[in-house]
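[Automated response] Your request has been received and processed.

Submitted sequence:
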Amino acid sequence: MSINREELKRIIDHIPEQDAIEVAVFIGYLNAKREREALKNLEHASLTSMEFWNNSVDDEVWNNV
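Generated structure:
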């Protein structure tokens, strides 16, 4: 399904106030979900990059710096 923002705004303009509040809450939920997913991806990337640096060769080099 595809909907443009102007159509979405028009639909929202015609719903009762209580429904508009629920729509706003749901949009907040979607934004938080997207942010949690982005943080999860960053955490995963940082953990996998740590595996790359966690090795005896690099440890020895850094010990002698």
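Summary generated for your ticket: Residues 17-53 form the longest helix (37 residues). The mean pLDDT is 89.
If you did not submit this request, please reply to this message.
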